[in-house]
Amino acid sequence: MPLSTQSQGEDEQYVLVATLDNARNLSNLLKAISFKDHAIFTVTPNGLKVTVEDCKCVQANAFIQADIFQEFTIKEDLIAFQVNLTVLLDCLNIFGGSIVAGISTALRMCYRGYGYPLTLFLEEGGVVTVCKINTEEPEEPIDFDFCSSNVTNKVILQSESLKEAFSDLDMTSEVLQITMSPNQPYFRLSTFGNSGSAHYDYNKDSDMMELFRCAETQTNRYKMSLLKPSTKALALSCKVSVRTDNRGVLSLQYLVRNDDGHICFVEFFCCPDEEVDEDL
Amino acid sequence: MQCVVTGGNVKVLAKAIHSLSRIGDELYVEPHEGDGLALRSVNSSRSAYACFLFAPLFFSRYSIRRGLDFRCKIAIKSVQTVFRSVATLEKTVEKCHIELDEAKDRLTFTLHCKHGLLKTHNLSYQDSESLQAVFDKDSCVNVFRAQPRVLVDTVVHFPPSVDEVTVTVSDERMWVRNHVEDEAERSRAMLTEMCLASDEFDHFEAKAHNSITFCLKELRGLLVFAESTGLPVSVYFNEPGSPVVLSVTDSVLEGNFVLATLSDDHNVQDNESRRAQAEPPPPDDFMNDDIDSYLIAMDTSVAPGPSTAEPSTSSAAGHRTRKHSEEEEGEEEEEEATDRPPNKKFRSLFFGSVLPPSPQMSTQPVTTQEVLASDSEDDAEAE
After folding, report:
1. What is the residue-wise DSSP string for chain A?
2. Tens digits of residue pLDDT in B9-46
3. Where is the composition biased (Polar residues) (chain B) (predicted)?
4. Which of A161, A194, A198 sits opposite B120 (nearest CB)?
5. Disulfide-capable partner of B258 in A87, A98, A116, B49 (CB 3.0 to 4.6 Å)?
6. Which residue range is the domain that position B12 belongs to?
7. Residue B117 sits in the same domain as residue B143
8. To the nearest whole angstrom, how far is the Cα of A197 from the nearest Cα of chain B?
């Protein structure tokens, strides 16, 4: 493979070298969180974390573990930089992005360190493209301080059923209200749009419900515009876990199986819109 | 009011609503104790009306509060949202519950889906007047019935830009072509014409050989429903100007689309000559003063409209020449009588063929009529 013929000498300069035989394993995940132009890359020996935020209220993280990569060499404990995600995705799809069986784009991602651009070597069918994307000072990602010990309610659903609900959501509603309760309606998504209200109720005994652990009745509202982008991640996933903590902060975790069958995670955090006392 | 729709009927209901959305923006809901649930729509210009009546047996449960006199209208887009993905509906929806909450002015649609998912839509409605179109299918002279595939296959050939179609019928044939309003456009427009033989229909009765022009979009609306349910479509009409009724029925539902048709003033026959186009014959009393003007007009080969009521229509300014093949005129037209003053345009050749010899013609001088072109007769008679 042309990419592997890089001289050893060149590799010495890079603090990070990561290769993938199929760039789609990365680009699909990044597309799922590409609701803003900029993304923060945080790299550790465990793998790669890409973070996108909006309005200081919603944050999406895509995790690609080190063992997903064919080669993953990191010379520091923590590397962080910010790049334009739209540009990065364009580069990853530079060979057209069409899905043809047996043909994939190989990726070698290299980074020399602070101040240097992110270098991508992309190869398909013997053609090699080199892309250098400028990096920026990484912003500090928001720490939602969401920890398992504060989780009041948690459900794990098969994505299939939630996909239908999310695609049907009344977009004229400004908020998406999520009710989780040990009693009826158990797990409810509600919208309040121009024509009236709509509710999607999932029964705790449903075969789509893999886990149902709700301690108390909680109803929280989230801005629809902030949550709508999560639909992309939902579309890729096979399972989703929905958790709320005692402050009403929402955590959505999506289990994504990539083309090779490996598992990656995408996570969304969202702050609640306002206090809701009663159901509508 | 509480209705429950189960199984395949949920999709039928959804298709009916989508079909009604092609007519107007609002859905008029009117439940009747005995007759069933009526869903209606009308377009803004009131030139298209559609009604689906679902008998109580369509529902697995149909209970109307005794004495309920209720009708409302809801934005049709809101109802469509409830039944959004029709394709998945039949796979996932087990039943649909429709409930009226008069206290809160809401109509609630609850879809019980597979895997324990419950979708509830609370739609607010507005009170409305009753919407009823007056039409009588049984008195129509032209009645046709065909499997929806026949009509769908016909209509698919017209591009989406086509607004209106003209349907012409004779004893054995039905022609469907796109209607182009004026001459100038006609030379630039693509003209599409489909011919259907009577044996393609389950029932073909064309007592009046005429043509009607109506809006294609609204016909497509009905076909959306007919095609998915496989119910045959019946077409009823009398004459241009009076509405055409398109209807689908089975034992538990009835759908009627009533569409206005263009009246004769606009329904000008175009230049194509292959069809046997019938026109209402001239009035019986064409043997009057005006006949001379027609004779003169014939000489100039421009055909003014014969009009007992309006002599001034002999001016040819606004009239168009129709170049139909001669074979088309004649017998058919003579047989049919109409007592309505014709405001149609007639071909000059028409008078030539049916004009009986009359002593009046040669002796009566033309004094009162507008002369369209110079003619030597006047000079001779003026002597």
Report:
1. -GGGGS-HHHHHH-SEEEEES-THHHHHHHHHT-SSSEEEEEEETTEEEEEEEETTTEEEEEEEEGGGSSEEEESSS-EEEEEEHHHHHHHHTTT----BTTB--EEEEEE-STTSPEEEEEEETTEEEEEEE--BPPPPPP-----GGGEEEEEEEEHHHHHHHHHH--TT-SEEEEEE-SSTTSEEEEEE-SSEEEEEEE-TT-TTEEEEEE-S-EEEEEEHHHHTTHHHHHHHEEEEEEEEETT--EEEEEEEE-TTS-EEEEEEEE---S---S--
2. 999 999 999 999 999 999 999 998 888 999 999 998 88
3. 360-371
4. A198
5. B49
6. 2-127
7. no
8. 5
